[in-house]
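Changelog note: in this version the structure field was regenerated for every chain. One regenerated record is shown below for reference.
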Amino acid sequence: MLQAIGLTSTPRRGLRAAVDDLTFEARPGHVTALLGAPGSGKTAALRLMLELDPGRGITYFRGRPMHRIPHPAREVGVLLGNVPGHPARTARGQLRMLCAAAGVPAARADELLDLVGLAGLGDQRIGALSLGMDRRLALASALLGDPHTLVLDDPTEGLAPREGSWLHGLLQARAARGGTVLYSTADPREAARTADRVVTIDGGRLVADQDGGDFSRTRLRPRVAVRTPHAARLAAVVSREARAARRSVEVVTEAGGRLAVYGSTCAEIGDTAFRHGLPVHQLADEIGDTGPAAPGSSPGDSTDPGASRSPADPAGPADPGPAEPAGRGGGAGAEGPRPVARGSVPESAPRIRRRSARGPIRPLRYELRRLFGVRTTTLIMAVVLVASVGLSVLLARNPHAPLPKVLAAWPSLLPLPPVAVGAGLLGALSFGDEFRYPALAAGRGTVPRRLGLLLAKLVVSAGVAVVLALAVVLVSGETLRLVYGHDWIHVPPNSVSLGVSWVALTVGCAWAGLLAAGVFRVTTAGVAAVLAVPVLVVPLVQLVLTGPAVRPVAGLPVRLRGLMWPRWPHETDRWIALVVGVLAHPVGTAMALSLSVLVCAYLLTGLHGRARWRSQRAAGSSQAS
């Protein structure tokens, strides 16, 4: 059962709250429609329930609020807007990536593609999907964890009637298996046709909470839609004849020469217009919307369809509210629900704080699918490889060019070799695409800063950088052998130190781009951080390292071995000296300094957000108790 209690949004300065003390429930085994005109607060209410926006109140999903559900994707499926996926990623790739985030097998993606009717479009790019196909993919994303509750925001908006009927049939099937389904809509006829219960809101407040059959009898009335150039004359004639015949007929004048006649038929209106010589351009039976229920009406009340009542009758609260669980936070041992009176003071309800999105349950698998699920990664790697080989061939024409520079394709005119720039760009995209296409953030909220997600991105970006660096050296070497022969290519004596420095440079650039994009939440910042290392940081480091008072660090491994117990092998001294040599180089020092600053900035921003979230959660819990 879904229970929303006292939902009240935080109003903007000078404006009223979009949601004001809203309380209702959606029962398992039923489809519940949250009905309201555009601007009535439907979406704001759903976002409060999912803890995506700040406010007051609380929502229980089978006895637990959202922030106390260990795996939300397995309890609540959410559809808010379109799929927040990279347009170049395939539908199957998107679902498999989300499977890793939800911790479900990848085979679940193909099952859902078949369920929502996209089995033949799994390799279709998201950007090429129609609105109906995109909505099907969004529904499949919501169903990944096989949740008990579905929360959908206007799922049939813009869909053709056939697509809408299919979607509602799927929702009815979910409810028939014992699930809870809540969707918002602005169409009362859709709600009457597809929902078992209709909750009507207006101005963010509850107007009526009715059974579907009661809603159809009290809210929807049959009428005759008439369009004529003489609307005023026809309305007067119909009203006069109805009074003479003592029949209850209501005529409502609408814009554009239209009339809505309640309590009559097309035949009667047509005969009246013919007798008085009035032309009629449209005459059709419709089901009209009479507006929100009148104040004081209850779900069991029904009104005479022929009764005269204006569609503009004021709205007010309807029936008593649903139940609130006795133990906030619920659980297996929580007591049964107890009734809560409607109209409680919103300030007494606990605060709703905007929660940060959880990271993926399988972060390494998620990151691999995210990185290689689009063509951008392959394209960047191919461009880097081709550019590096081309530069190597051009540099090798100079007989005095050093071999390491030739193999690395690093001319003196460039601040960084192409492979370092490519690795930095891939690292920047690792976090930049998360903020541009926030697949991990429900409702396009904040991207999680979980340590597991960060470690997965660091490991994957480092692996890609190492593979790219080695591929550039090997392919460039083989190309040079093919073009210039075997005579001048040889293995230098310091190949180990050169290789370590080369790998450290590419990995450092990848990490610099990744961390900067994670701190500033944009890919451009990551690329700028990579380029800033040779352009800004290296000159500053050179000023410090080349000063007259610089002391050498020779013999550091031997002195460290004297401090350690037990003694490490002598071979370790070589590796320590190698690492110290890499860090002592101006580029190595600049890269280490930049990475240290970026790591601290990332951790500080993440810890600040987590500390604020914990303090707000503690304040909300104390108010709830």
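Spot check on this record: The mean pLDDT is 82. The two ends are 22 Å apart (CA to CA).
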